[in-house]
Structure formats: structure tokens, C-alpha cells
Amino acid sequence: MRTVKGRMERVTQRLRLRKPEPDDLDALFALYSDPQVWAPDPLSRHSAPAQTARTLDIWRAAWERDGLGMWVAHELDGAFAGIGGCFIRYGAAWNLGFRLLPAFWGRGYAQEISAAAIGAAAALRPDLAMTAYLLEGNDRSQHTVERAGLHRIWRGPDAGNPDPSAIRLLFADRPLPIDVIRALTAF
Length: 187
Fold this sequence. Notes:
Layout: E1 2-4, E2 7-11, E3 15-18, H1 25-32, H2 49-66, E4 70-75, E5 80-89, E6 93-100, H3 109-124, E7 130-135, H4 139-147, E8 151-157, E9 167-172, H5 178-185
Parallel strand pairs: 6-7
Antiparallel strand pairs: 1-2, 2-3, 3-4, 4-5, 5-6, 7-9, 8-9
Helix pairs in contact: 1-2
């Protein structure tokens, strides 16, 4: 990690990753309201900037609580590419996540963000498993988490989803006790 313009950031081979700031709201809303980005998970799509502002507050609180959270990802030339990173979910495990604008799909950026997040989480809390929680049919994300070394450990109904046919998949880097699986999948 290094400080640039008063902000802590991590630099990967092609990206600058940093803690989100309130002035990121417009770029984040563009990402979170894009129907193409959220096609695999339309319930998570934002329809108003206030939703994105709440998400931004949650991410910033995770940084304070966990010492790590979701990053805002920019190419080295400054172009906003998306978000990614990890946070501690329900006190039980790290949860890996990433979303990129469509113009940045297929470049390996989700893999690059995932590797940085997994390394940072392991340095902070190696006792916690790394997990990823995604909807079945989100093949792009599934391939990324599998390439990052996570394996599917649970498949079941997507709790709280109004679509009764929606299926959630839970991936992890190690076997999880049943109470942790329940905590991560039933809300």
C-alpha cells in the first residue's frame, strides 16, 4: 500500500485500487445502475444514487471495521474500471466481490483485483476463509472465483430473492463448518 494524494492505494500490474471516497458516487452509480453489468443479478441493480450512497457508506464502514473492504479500481491512466475487493461477511468469512464496467470485461481485471484482495485478506486475517457468493448462471464471475482458487461448497435457494427459481452458489478456499455455511447463505 502507498499513499497518493492523501489516499491509501494498492497498485497491481495494471490497476490502482483504493478505498472508496464520497466523491466516487457518480462513477459508482453509473456502474451500479448499468443494466448490462447487473444482468446476472438484476435485484442488485441501483435505480437511484441514494442506493449507491448507502452502499458506499457500508463499504467505508467495512474498511474501518475490518481494515479492508471494497476498492475502487482505476486503470493506471486513471480510467474508472469498476470495483472489487473483500470484506468480512457476518463475522464468519471474507467475501470476495468485483464488478467492472462492460468496456473492461475480458481483460483479466477481475482476476487481478481478486488476487490483490485474497493477498490482503490473508495478511490481515488468515484464520478466515475467503468466500464468494454468486447467482447460478453468472458464468463470468464463477470462472473468476474458480481461477482464484475457490471451490463450490454449497448450492441452494437464494434466500430473500422473489424469484423462487434463483439459485445461489457459495465458493470458498477451504471447507467450512456447517454453521458458517448457514450464516453465509440464510439471511
